[in-house]
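I hope you will forgive my troubling you with a question about protein structure. Could you please explain, in whatever detail you think fit, how the structure tokens follow from the sequence? Thank you for your consideration; the sequence and its tokens are set out here.
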Amino acid sequence: MLRPEQMSKVSVTGSRTVMAPVIETIHELNLVHLSDYDGSWEGFDNGNPIEGADQASEKLVTVRALENTLELSADEAEPGRLETGWEDRLEEIRTRVNELDDQRGEVTDELRQVNEKIDRVAPFAELGIDLDLLSGYESVDVAVVEGPVGAIEDAVAASDDVRAFETFTGGDVVAIVAAPTADADDAPIDDALVGVDVTRHSVPETEQSPEAYVADLEDEKADLESRREEIDAELAEIKREEAGFLLRVEEELTVEVQQAEAPLQFATTDRAFIAEGWIPTDDYDRLVAALDDAVGDSVEIEELERADYDRHGAHSHTEDVQEGAPSAADGDDAAADADDQQQKAVTDGGSTVTMGDEPPTIQDNPGPAKPFELLVQAVNRPKYSELDPTVFLFLTFPAFFGFMIGDAGYGILYIAIGAYMATQFDSKGITSLGGVAIWAGLFTTLFGFVYGEIFGLHILGEVVWHDLFNVELLPLNKGLEPAAADFALGWMVVSVLAGIVHLNIGYILDFYENLSHGFKDALFHSGSWILMINGIWIWIFSAQAEGSKPDFLFTTFASDGPFPIGFTGFPEWVLVTVPGIEFPLSAPLLVFLIGLVMLAVSEPVEIVESLDVVVNVFSYTRMGAVLLAKAGMAFVVNLLFFGAYEDPDGEFHFLRNHEPSYVAEHYGEGAEVIFNGLMHSGTAALLGGLVILVLGHIVVLVLGVTSAGLQGVRLEYVEFFNKFYEGGGENYEPFGTDRDHIED
């Protein structure tokens, strides 16, 4: 559908005594997108949470903290029932998990300290000196440092505070024993090494040898790691046994908190409440029936409005609603008071005034187009009041992508990758991208047959079109060979024509949207652009001033051109004249000028953008450019592996089935080998060539997404959407929670 699903604004009014069952019923339906009361009605305030909300929130925080500690995910348990007395069980789990988590934290901290000690003693092991020999001296200064040995010795030798010293080295680790002079400071070695890039190592306080010290630390480390594994095993056992229970408790508490905090969105008095929200129109009767079953006639339910679609303003009412607000049950004094209060709140000049929010958007597209909703939402969700462009994106983006890549081999791989993403992941975003990839792959495969290519080779053209169907016009050449250069320019022309059609669709949609303000407004605002884009491009493809226009505009579709349909341009048409004067103005240019004048009348400031009808169309030539670039990359990969030759007619052929010597034997001097190919250059070259062949095509496959994909999306977002689409709609988020873990 081109429109979001129709929404209705509903109001539920009743006494405070029935608010809790009303909230519970609405929550179970999971249908109503609640409106937030802004406090603007006289006599009404936002409601307060239901008693017990704080305690439920605290328990919910506790459960989620336990799930985080246990690294529990939502898909790790089957649905089940939540038995009574679950609070005591939850407290037991909390106590046990917290104790184990604290123990694990202590063990991890001790393990970190042991590892630091091992790291600190490692340099001393290189020296091979007992640790007790490196400390405890009064007459000499001892230091162990790590750095350039020569620079260290030179610096100490040059120090005026050291009268004698000795060094012991092991790799880059140096132990220095220095006798200071009488007037030296307390740390003469440190002073001497100020200008040298060294790391100072503190001597561990132990009388053991470094090897024995490290051995003891390794034993301690092993004990700590074993203890941590035991704790992890206990936590894993708790997770295995209690996963389902914790997920059910989280679900129950989530529901309880949502229901308890719902009054914050209501308008309330001491004795009554008013709740408003949006609901799909088709589900209104279901809401009424559910509330009637729950509380009978203790509440009044009213459909305040059915939102219509109006692009340039607020939603409009398609149904008249009763003046004033609904009251509660007859004879209920509290509800009567609510009726009096709400009358003041919602009546203004005889029109019902509600909480004033815009309807949320539910995108309603057919199944095949559903994955493309993700691409639309990447820009912005459509407003309720405007057309949803998803279907148009579904119809054009895969075609653009397929046109640019156009290779059956790559297309099949895109389909396979998309199918994997769509079926093997739970994320809606990834599955939607998988659906987009499948459609893009289908069109890539389709165009691959049109071009006769599979992984850059023209095998399909020979087998399918020539051998099976004896079709001469297909496959179409991409234009990489000099003999087929006309095709390269031809694809640019085809890209321009695709742009003209695509932009026309956008302007027509804008025209349709503006019809809500009258035909005149639509004609001048949107029709002007339709006249301008078609007028100027018909003139560009017309015979007037043909000599100053590129020849390929008229030869691309000529009978002897790359696409021989017999079109050589539009006629010049009769020039527009006035009595006695002939203006050099053809009919298409007149159409353009009429559109320009209409635009000046309706939107004068947009005159500066009138050249967009030319510039925006030229943007579509990027499709032809990507087509040639990707085909060229695949061509180079195949050329390196297979090699190629040019026959006497100037056509290229890969050396797939022949050795390079075949060219001279078969054609003589009329053909030329361009490159022998790695597959014909020995075993080592063949193996290297296979790597290049596989990696090269993988690169082309990936770059197809980043180039053709991004360029196609850009054309949709920047050129097409800007003609009729704004976005900025609110997502439909009904009040309620799906029960995934608690069985009914």
